[in-house]
Amino acid sequence: MTTPRSDATSHGRFNLEQQRKRAKELLKAARADDPDALVRILRHIPPRETPLRLTDTQFVIARECGFPSWPRLKAHIESLDVSRRLAADRGDRDMATLHIRCGSDIEHTLRTAGFIGDFLEFSDPFCIGPLRDLPPNELLRLRAGFLAEVSGMAERDALARLRKSYETLNGLDRYERVVLWFEHDSYDQLLLAFLLHHLHANTPTARIELVAVEAIPGVERFIGIGQLAPDLLAWLWRQRRSVEVPLLELGTQAWAALTAERPEPLEALVNTGTPALPMMGKALERHLQELPEPDTGLGLTERLTLEIVRDHGPLPVGKAFSYLMREYEPLPYLGDLMFWWLIQPLVTAPQPALDITDTHLEWPHRRLALMDLGREVLAGRRNWLAYAPGARWVGGIRI
After folding, report:
1. Which of 84-93, 109-118, 215-224, 293-302 has the lowest mean pLDDT?
2. Where is the DUF1835 domain (predicted)?
């Protein structure tokens, strides 16, 4: 039996009256000996002789929502309500504010929550493609050339798109406060490392603050800030922290390691646990897992993709991506287009690991099937590096 879930387990917003109603309905069903209700209760409360009370089913509802107790669930909902009111009343209106995020996913949600500051999307996906510790204009051209190759757009268009966000970083002194909104995955954390490095080298007069998120109470599978309801952004706003020198220094250390031509600097940094921001160390460790495994020659995304097609295929590319994000990837970070680009060598090599059909359809609907070579590589009997076309990059490391 599947435990009933509220939508709040994905967007994080809970309604106290709704949860009270659910607890009363569960108690009524249990007293009527409804088998599903009894199974739900026994999952959290051992059998006993005393009659069930409302406090018991409230405890069950709280556990199903991801909280250890009903008082903890209630306190969290009350905190969300306070945060919502404060954001509506004051928001970020006390200072001229710039919000920086690695995408546009929370721009509208911030407005809905009551924030009026400027918004900068800084979304150069450093988790794929080459990185070098270059002056900004040279880095900009390196990344624009790569993104043009990935997206199919003209390089001048890719350059224009990136230049706007890079140039905004040079005009931060018009703001009194800059707030960085980033979660725990390698897409976000690599960008955060660059931004912290930039701010370390070019310290603005603005106050720098950080919202760094790796889990949200009650959210069953937290992937990103963009999935959250406006009240949750208001709640996170109250938990933002000032960016101090140790965190700026970590950004510079991480950027130097990410752009190095060998993995040892990154491995050494990961081994420190990155105490100024532990989630960055975890993301950098995941980034290192894109390096080829000794036996198979596969990066982790490549290996997981072959395993998904082995376990569930043949299946559409979009479905494979869904399995990756929901079940296989330990630290989800890819967008769908990045995933499509990353698996290209597996399907376009002279001897491919994956077969792809229905090529007249849009790419999410094309079907993947595992080739014999893919099975051999997964088993460690062949090494993919002997078959993969061209070169790829993991940060500064060319493979």
Report:
1. 215-224
2. 98-202
Kindly write down the DSSP assignment for every residue of 166-196, as one continuous string.
Answer: HHHGGGGGG-SEEEEEEESSHHHHHHHHHHH
Query: Does 57 fall in a domain?
Result: yes
Q: Are residues 136 and 177 in the same domain?
A: yes
pLDDT in tens, 273-320: 999 999 999 999 999 999 999 999 999 999 999 999 999 989 999 999
* Residues 175, 107 share a domain: yes
In terms of Cα–Cα distance, which of 79, 176, 171 is closest to 120?
171
Residue 267 resides in a domain: no
Token output for 10: 């994905």
Q: Is residue 278 included in any domain, yes or no? A: no
Both tokens of residue 156? Answer: 């001048």
Token digits of residue 358: 């229905």
pLDDT confidence of residue 2: 44
User: At 129, which helix (H) or strand (E)?
Assistant: strand 129-130
